[in-house]
Amino acid sequence: MTETSYVSIRFDNQTGIGYLELNRPDKLNAIDLPMANAFLAAVRELVSKPNLRCIVLSGAGRAFAAGGDVACFAPPNNPAEQINALLDPLHAAIIALRQCQAPVITAVKGVAAGAGFSLAIAGDLVLAEENAKFIIAYTGLGATPDCGASWFLPRRVGRARAMEILLSDPVIDAQAAKEWGIVNKVLASENFESLVEECVLRIASGPTQAYGACKALIDSEVSLAQHLEDERSYFIATSQTGDFREGVSAFLAKRKPVFKGR
């Protein structure tokens, strides 16, 4: 275990799983500038691992993340300067997570509000503890979303539901978040960590390069004709991997494939 200021990092060489934990529990992991910079440094450290196969993002203590540290925006600080300073590293970290081949799983306990909400739904899979709460929070402050919330949210729940959430700023419990499509799974509190790990191990044992191609295709915004050609290109590229050869061999032999992520 190493620590980059407010973010704890762990990498398991055997499984290829990287763990990022927001680590400012006394402030409910509210993000200030040192934490934003630490998050970017931690993300860059993990995505550089050559055998990375999955990333887990979580929060220490009682919350996933309570959003940006609102105290940073109060006088005598200039809110515009503070917002710009925070978003430079956060944007870079979010893009790096979306562009890396390894699937990103967010494990949400407690509250995910504001930028914490954005980081939670930036995951490829969102796993929520049964008592988790999701709050968009921005419009409650008289502000607009950041950290990709207005990009990720309508892609998860549709425009109508996204606008409803932004206009009413509700506290969304885990079950409603599951029904609305904000989260993928709701897991029991008493064994949340073990259930998360079970899911993570399953994803980490999959064909990582194919997963990365799936991420790129899902996030792509091009014409249908171009998308079909992109699918062709990714399919041909993945057909040259060891995992593809293993998958074909296992299918023909009627056995479970053993993927190596390469």
- Under CATH at level 1, the class of the largest domain stands as Alpha Beta
- What is the strand tally? 10
Q: In percent terms, what proportion of residues is strand?
A: 15-25%
CATH architecture of the largest domain: Alpha-Beta Complex
Total of domains: 2
Arithmetic mean pLDDT? 94
List low-pLDDT spans. none
C-alpha-based Rg, rounded? 19 Å
Going by CATH, the homologous superfamily of the largest domain would be 2-enoyl-CoA Hydratase, Chain A, domain 1
How much helix is in the residues?
40-55%
Strand/helix succession: EEEHEHEEHEEHHEHEHHHH
Lateral arrangement of strands in the main beta sheet? 1-2-3-4-5-7-10
Briefly note the structural class of the backbone.
Answer: alpha/beta
How many angstroms does the end-to-end distance come to? 26 Å
Assign the CATH topology of the largest domain: 2-enoyl-CoA Hydratase, Chain A, domain 1
Assign an overall shape: globular
Q: Mind describing the biggest β-sheet? A: 7 strands, mixed
Secondary-structure blueprint:
Blueprint: E1 2-4, E2 7-12, E3 17-22, H1 33-47, E4 54-59, H2 79-99, E5 104-108, E6 111-113, H3 115-121, E7 125-129, E8 133-135, H4 149-157, H5 159-168, E9 171-173, H6 174-180, E10 185-187, H7 192-204, H8 208-219, H9 224-238, H10 242-253
Parallel strand pairs: 3-4, 4-5, 5-7, 6-8, 7-10
Antiparallel strand pairs: 1-2, 2-3, 8-9
Helix pairs in contact: 1-2, 3-4, 4-5, 8-9
Please supply descriptive tags for the structure shown above.
2-enoyl-CoA Hydratase, Chain A, domain 1; 262 residues; 7-stranded mixed beta sheet; alpha/beta; 3-stranded mixed beta sheet; globular; Lyase 2-enoyl-coa Hydratase, Chain  A, domain 2; single chain
